[in-house]
Every structure is written in structure tokens, then in C-alpha cells.
Write a structure and sequence with these properties.
Layout: E1 6-9, E2 12-15, H1 26-30, E3 33-41, E4 44-45, H2 48-61, H3 70-83, E5 90-97, E6 114-121, H4 126-131, E7 133-139, H5 154-165, E8 170-175, E9 178-182, E10 186-191, E11 194-197, H6 208-219, E12 224-226, E13 239-244, E14 248-255, E15 258-259, H7 267-288
Parallel strand pairs: 7-8, 7-14, 11-12
Antiparallel strand pairs: 1-2, 1-6, 3-4, 3-5, 5-6, 8-9, 10-11, 10-13, 13-14, 14-15
The structure holds N-(5'-phosphopyridoxyl)-D-alanine.
């Protein structure tokens, strides 16, 4: 996954080799920051507004003052793609931290936030999207404010690694027996024609793709029920799928070595994948106009 040469640093653009942080940096030392990952298809952002809005919500929740307005950031991010002549499928990673300051838990006074954003290629997971993926289940040991897209990802990293070590793609997390989400995606169970997923409380990330899945379900007349399902419900599921900016709408065919239904992606998951595809195309037309 190659990183494009021009990155955004603070409010301007520079070559990626010029980015230099002191070791006393709040993001590095405390994970004191927030981030976003935005999907790019054919050189155009998908769900740019939604991600930028969420970045502002996350920053506000942890009292980090960003250097720009919402509108300014969107314009800068569009410029970032132009400057890199980005034309492929990829993603932008952006993060804001509380800045560079001598290490002290207390917020530093009058220090500007640090910000950077860079673009990289990310081909779509065509084979996984077609065939589905295997997952494990893990206890959700994260804090209470998972709706904030914080840099503190250690529990997520450990869960994803556990999945990888068992030959799986994702870890489905559960708290007190109720499925919350996955290490880096939202998760849904289909039963008797209904979609069930954890409500958008403070306990999960309010995924941008999740918002679209809700809309697609509405458009397709499929009940979208924001009710957490239990780990024990999984073995009786008709279908299971994930969503995220990098995973899109991804069928799950195995959980903890147990096959889901026929072991093949289900009909509702397929309909949502089609709706996703159509949405990507429509959004691109809007941005290239
Ligand atoms: N992950 N839940 C968690 C814990 C996530 O980290 C993500 C995104 C999602 C899905 O959010 P969205 O639909 O807005 O991408 C849900 C990104 C892709 C990541 O950290 O790489």
C-alpha cells in the first residue's frame, strides 16, 4: 500500500519526508488524539462529509481544538487528492492530537493541535466481498466512550491480532454477552428478514458506513432493528455481516469455527452490497461535477 508523496501537515501541504515530530508529542505518548479513515474510490472520497463531521464530534468530545473549520478541512482534503493526482481506490488517514509539549497528563496551555493526513492506495477486498470472511469472538474490554474515534486502540489491536492468529479476519466484541461491534468494523445479524445491530450508544463507533446500511435497509424495506443481539444468537443467525470504510459491506460466513447458515453470503447481505455499490457510484458523480 504505497503512500502518496504530498501530505497535509497542520493546515498546509508538504512532502511526507518532511514530517518530523518531537518525541514529546501527545499522540505518541498518551494516544491523546482522534482520527478518521476515509475511503477513496477512483480518486474520489466516499462519505467525506460524514467522516469530517465525526472528526469534529470526536475532537470536541476530548476537548481538542482543531485548526480549521469543517468547511476548510473538507476543501483541504479535496486539495490533498488533487495535489497527489490520486486516481485509484485508496484511503486517507488523518489524525489530530493535543500537540507537542513536555510530558504531563494535564493539558498543555496554548499549544496548537497537531494534524496530519496522508493518502494511500487500498485495493478493494474483492475476494472477501464475494466469499465472506471468518471471525472470532472476544470480550469487549474497551472504555465507555467508543463513539469517540480515539487513537487509543490497544484493545482493538489485541482483538484483531487474536483474530489473525486464528486465521480470521475480524474479532466480534461482546460486553456482558451482548455483541457491541468488531475491532475495526460494525456488525449485524440477520434473522427472519430483520437486521439487528447494537444501538448507536456511546459504547460503539457510529460507523459512517453503518449510517448508509441503515438507509439502504430503509430503502429496501428491510427492518433495521437497533437492538443488541447475544453471542448465543449468532449460531442461529440466517446471515451475519460487517461494515466499515475499508471492509465495505462484508459477509461473515464463520464465527469461532462454526459455519453461519449455509456457509455462503446471504441474500440480504448481497442486496446491501449492491446498494453500497450504487451509492458509491452516485456519490462519485456528485464529487466530479
Ligand atoms: N475503522 N467500529 C470501529 C471500532 C472502527 O474502528 C470502525 C472503522 C468502524 C466502522 O466505521 P466506518 O464505517 O465509519 O468506517 C466501526 C476504520 C476503518 C479503521 O480504524 O481503520
Amino acid at each position: 500500500m504505497s503512500v502518496y508523496p504530498i501530505i497535509m501537515a497542520q493546515k498546509s501541504f508538504t512532502h511526507k519526508d518532511n514530517l518530523n515530530y518531537p518525541f514529546e508529542e501527545r499522540g505518541l505518548q498518551f494516544g491523546d488524539g482522534v482520527y478518521e479513515v476515509i475511503r477513496i474510490y477512483d480518486g474520489a472520497y466516499y462519505l467525506l462529509e460524514e467522516h469530517v463531521d465525526r472528526l469534529f464530534r470526536s475532537a470536541e468530545a476530548v476537548k481538542i481544538k482543531l485548526l480549521f473549520t469543517n468547511e476548510e478541512l473538507k476543501a483541504l482534503l479535496l486539495d490533498l487528492l488533487k495535489r497527489n493526482e490520486m486516481k485509484t481506490d485508496g484511503k486517507v488517514y488523518l489524525q489530530a492530537t493535543r500537540g507537542s509539549a513536555p510530558r504531563d497528563h494535564v493539558f498543555p496551555a496554548n499549544i496548537p493541535a497537531n494534524f496530519y493526513a496522508y493518502v494511500q492506495d487500498q485495493p478493494r477486498h474483492s475476494e472477501k466481498l464475494e466469499k465472506g470472511v471468518s471471525t472470532i469472538t472476544q470480550r469487549d474490554i474497551r472504555w465507555e466512550n467508543c463513539y469517540i474515534k480515539s487513537l487509543n486502540l490497544l484493545p482493538n489491536v489485541l482483538a484483531k491480532q487474536a483474530a489473525k492468529e486464528q486465521g480470521c479476519y475480524e474479532a466480534i466484541l461482546h460486553k456482558d454477552g451482548v455483541v457491541t461491534e468488531c475491532s475495526s468494523s460494525n456488525v449485524y445479524l440477520v434473522k427472519n428478514g430483520n437486521i439487528y445491530t447494537h444501538p448507536a450508544t456511546k459504547g460503539i463507533l457510529h460507523g459512517c458506513v453503518r449510517m448508509r446500511v441503515e438507509k439502504f435497509a430503509h430503502d429496501l424495506d428491510i427492518p433495521f432493528i437497533e437492538e443488541g443481539f447475544a453471542v448465543e444468537d449468532i449460531e442461529m443467525a440466517d446471515e451475519l455481516f460487517l461494515s466499515s470504510s475499508t471492509s465495505e459491506v462484508l459477509p461473515v460466513i464463520k464465527v469461532d469455527n462454526q459455519q453461519i447458515a449455509t456457509g455462503k453470503p446471504g441474500a440480504i447481505t448481497r442486496k446491501l452490497q449492491e446498494a453500497y455499490e450504487a451509492d458509491v457510484k452516485q456519490r462519485q458523480i456528485q464529487f466530479t461535477k
